[in-house]
Every structure is written in C-alpha cells, then in structure tokens.
Amino acid sequence: MTRTRRISKAQQGIHKNLECVVKKHLNSTHQKPVAEHTQQAFDKIKPLVDEALAAGRPLIFDSGCGTAMSTRILAEQNPHGLILGIDRSASRLEKEYNRQLPQNAHLIRAECADFWHLASRQGWKLSAHKILYPNPYPKSKHLKRRWHGHPAFSDMLALGGEIELRTNWKVYADEFCAAINLANKRTLRCQGVEIFIPQKPLTLFEKKYHDAGQPLWRVFSK
Ligand SMILES: C[S@@+](CC[C@H](N)C(=O)[O-])C[C@H]1O[C@@H](n2cnc3c(N)ncnc32)[C@H](O)[C@@H]1O
Fold first, then answer.
1. From atom 26 of ligand 1, which residue's Cα is the shortest distance away?
2. Shortest CA distance to 182 belongs to which of 64, 69, 14, 62?
3. Which one of 39, 127, 170, 187 is separated from 155 by 20 to 30 angstroms, measured CA to CA?
C-alpha cells in the first residue's frame, strides 16, 4: 500500500458557519479584479466556446484539472463536446501541453474563480462541470478557501450543468452538497454524497488515494 497523506487533525463535521458564509456570498456581487492572465486566456478561448454553444455542442469544464488526465478522458468520452481543463499551475498543465490532446479538449492556465466569473457574465451554460479532488483546506479557519465557502461559488452555480465533485475528505463532500441545497436553485439540487470505488481512475489524485486504500466520495448535482 502506498503511503499518502490522510486528512487528519482536520475540521470535524460540517462547519458551523457554512450557511452564513454561503448565503453572504450568494447575496453579494463579485468584487475582486480579474487576473490579467486569466482575462487573456478567456479572450483567447471565447470565440471557440461561442461557436460551440451556437452549434449546440455540450460545454464541459474540468476545473482544477491538474495534469489533465481527466480532461483527456472526458474529451474521449464526449467526442461531440468541448472540454476545457482549467488550472492555475503552469507546471501541472505543461506535463500535458507537450502531448497531443484530443481536438475537442483545451487546457487553460487560469484562476478558476476569475474564469468562472467571466464565463457566467458571458452567459455561458455548461452541460457538465467536474471538480475533481479540489484542494481540501481542512483547517476550520480555511472554510472560505473551499469552493462552496468562496465568493466564486455563485458564479459556479450560475454556470449550471451537472456538477460532479470528488474528494477523499467526506466533510468537503458533505459541505459542498449542503451548500448547493442552501442556494436553493430551482434547477440545481444536490443528489447526495456517495462513497465509490473507481473502476478506472479518472485523475492522478484519484489513483493515488485509491492505491493508498483511502475512501473516495462523490457529490452529484443536477
Ligand atoms: C489536488 S489537485 C487535483 C488535480 C486533479 N484534478 C487530480 O485530481 O489529479 C488540485 C488542483 O487544483 C488547482 N487549483 C487549486 N486552486 C485553483 C484555482 N483557484 N484556480 C485554478 N486551479 C486551482 C491546483 O493547481 C491543482 O492542480
């Protein structure tokens, strides 16, 4: 069994301030200026996305894609779709830049929060949104760094689509599911949190955690 870090000494259970933080962010508007490199990346990909949406092709985001193993798989599974793998880390993305990606997949170096904001302001609608093994930020004081405690959560929800989050930390999954239902969107409900065993890993982190014998959790919303 591989040695890999388990989430320990972490916050236990759903954060007591979750509802307050989520509702505050859902009732306020995005303030932070968009990072220049993210604006440029958005402007570059926009014509392709506009064309795909106009043609009725499914648009799928793989947010925080890391080395983009999942982006590649999603593109192969959805040959008619346009798949954007988004990550802020150039070094992680570069591992795939040198390999040929399927034609319908594109890697974007960007801050997800800014990219989601630009995309939702543009009115883009996703068919699916994968958020696979986001950084957990397990200390209680870091709730606002988790996606559901982040101001960008409202932009994520505005983008819509079937949202799937995977994590090795159940608290993250429970909070994410609860936050989606707190938002009380007519078109988006969390279907629940389930433990699962990957038949074939979708990402490198999934493989690492599974090989280490850790339980994996999945949240599915539509
Ligand atoms: C734990 S890794 C998981 C990577 C991949 N999804 C996997 O499962 O192998 C989290 C990834 O999210 C990216 N990330 C974290 N915060 C981000 C942000 N604000 N904007 C874009 N990428 C971010 C990191 O660079 C990292 O590649």
1. 66
2. 14
3. 170
pLDDT tens for each residue of 126-178: 999 999 999 999 999 999 999 999 999 999 999 999 999 999 999 999 999 99
193 domain-assigned = yes
Cβ of 160 below 6 Å from ligand 1: no
Residue 153, domain CATH: 3.40.50.150
Segment holding 166, helix H or strand E: strand 162-167
Of 37, 73, 89, the one to substitute when testing ligand 1's pocket (max ligand atoms within 8 A of C-beta) is 89
Tell whether pTM > 0.85.
yes
- Nearest residue by C-alpha to atom 11 in ligand 1: 64
Residue with tokens 């939702």: 120
Ligand 1 probe mutation, 38, 129, 133, most atoms within 8 A of CB:
133
Q: Which of 170, 150, 141 is nearest to 22 (CA)?
A: 150
- Give the 3-state DSSP-derived string for 82-128, with helices as H, strands as E and coil as C: EEEEEECCHHHHHHHHCCCCCCCEEEEECCHHHHHHHHHHCCCCCCE
pLDDT value at residue 1: 46
Are 150 and 116 a contacting pair, CB within 8 Å?
no
Q: How many domains does the chain have?
A: 1
**Angle between helix 18-26 and 170-183 (nearest 10):** 50
- Residue 159 sits in which domain range? 18-221
Mean pLDDT over 96-114 rounds to 89
Q: Yes or no: say if 2 and 163 are a contact pair by the CB < 8 Å rule.
A: no
On whether residue 87 sits in a domain, the answer given is yes
